[in-house]
Specification:
The chain is an alpha/beta fold and 265 residues long. It contains 9 helices and 13 strands. The two termini are 22 Å apart.
Length: 265
């Protein structure tokens, strides 16, 4: 099997590549840091060549892990979530038997006013209307080594003996569950459509406590109504010291729990 993995060098991709399933397949690995390099079964290419490589090398499997949680510049959500998918669809339509596995997110819906979720939803719609063989996976917050939240909690913990969090629930997905689900979708007959994956649904308080315990830090976690987090988000508009900005506050207001509308992998 030949597979291209977009976003292989990120948090999710670094864990995915450790799975035995991907050890013996021919992998095309685009990254903005790469120059052209062939190493065993792996072909490293510049990201700019990703879509032309899909057309020319015709991988049977296209895995799109690319996602941006916090924009560094205006329009980054659209570029990462929509333009990437446009390129994948255009390239995959040039040959037969292409299968696409696309990572979206639990919480994606028409009702959510977040630009993050809006662009995620638009990408889903484009894929489903493309006529291609598409499996869309909506994971909860993926929990595991390398999760950016851990670094944010470390920074916050330096400044304060307590941490505030929303007084609501969230779906989390263990990184091993996430990887196993991708492998299942890659290697077995999973039908075309949208799937949700998660390990458990817990309060944000317990999620933060679980995260703090994972990184070996003890802090008091205080759940508060979401509106109380707005000042932290406003601070995030002017400084990178805040873990969230206004867009992420809007993301936080969207239900981050399974919808019940889709099957679970």
């Amino acid at each position: 099997m030949k597979v291209i993995i977009l976003g292989y060098s990120g948090f999710l991709g670094s864990h995915l590549l450790k799975h035995n399933f991907f050890a013996n397949v021919e992998k095309i690995l685009p990254s903005r840091k790469n120059t052209l390099l062939k190493e065993g079964n792996d072909l490293f290419i510049p990201f700019e060549e990703a879509f032309s490589s899909i057309k020319n090398l015709k991988p049977e499997l296209i895995i799109n892990l690319i996602g941006v949680l916090r924009e560094k510049y205006k329009g980054e959500y659209r570029k990462a979530h929509i333009e990437t998918v446009k390129g994948i669809i255009e390239a995959a339509k040039t040959y037969e038997n292409a299968k696409i596995i696309h990572i979206s997110a639990i919480g994606t819906s028409e009702e959510c006013k977040s630009e993050y979720f809006h662009t995620k939803l638009q990408a889903e719609k484009m894929l489903l209307s493309s006529g291609l063989e598409v499996i869309i996976i909506r994971p909860g917050i993926v929990f595991g080594e390398g999760q950016k939240l851990f670094e944010d909690l470390k920074k916050i913990s330096i400044l304060t003996p307590f941490i505030i969090c929303p007084s609501s629930k969230v779906a989390i997905c263990d990184i091993n569950k996430f990887v196993d689900s991708i492998v299942e979708a890659s290697s077995k007959q999973v039908k075309r459509g949208i799937y949700e994956i998660y390990t458990e649904v817990i309060s944000f308080k317990n999620f933060f406590k679980k995260s703090l315990n994972f990184i070996g830090i003890k802090r008091i976690v205080i759940p508060v109504p979401k509106i109380f987090i707005l000042p932290v988000a406003l601070l995030g508009e002017i400084t990178n010291m805040s873990p969230i900005n206004l867009e992420q506050y809007r993301m936080l207001k969207c239900p981050a729990i399974p919808s019940g509308k889709f099957p679970v992998l």
